[in-house]
Amino acid sequence: MAVESRSLVIAQDDNLTSFGNLNAKIKLLDSLSRWVRLEMSGSVHLNLKVYPKTYPLTEFRTGWILERNGSVFIWKLS
Q1: Of 58, 62, 27, which Cα lies nearest the Cα of 47?
Q2: By the number of CB atoms within 10 A of the CB, which of 6, 70, 71, 76 ranks highest?
Q3: Same domain as 64, residue 32
Q4: 78 and 60 belong to one structural domain
């Protein structure tokens, strides 16, 4: 999500849907291109879970945790 431009992109399977304007989509595609150039793991190896901020996160020992507004995003390599 590109907060400064009030835009959002949602990735589902093989589809990207943009809301607001294209800024978030462009940032996402740039990041994915950089990821591929660095020969990192493919998207099939990434696992994303989203929980309300009040959810107890005691079960998560690995991964990247990102808090935004009322949600917690947990990224993990599978």
Answers
A1: 62
A2: 76
A3: no
A4: yes
Which secondary-structure segment (H or E) carries 12? strand 8-12
Do residues 51 and 35 share a domain? no
57 and 35 fall within a common domain: no
* Rg, Å, the chain Cα set: 14
**pLDDT tens track of the chain, all 78 residues?**
445 677 888 888 788 888 888 888 888 888 888 877 877 766 666 788 888 988 887 766 677 888 888 888 888 776
**Residue 69 three-state SS:** coil
What pTM value is reported for the model?
A: 0.48
Whole-number Å distance between alpha carbons of 19 and 67: 21
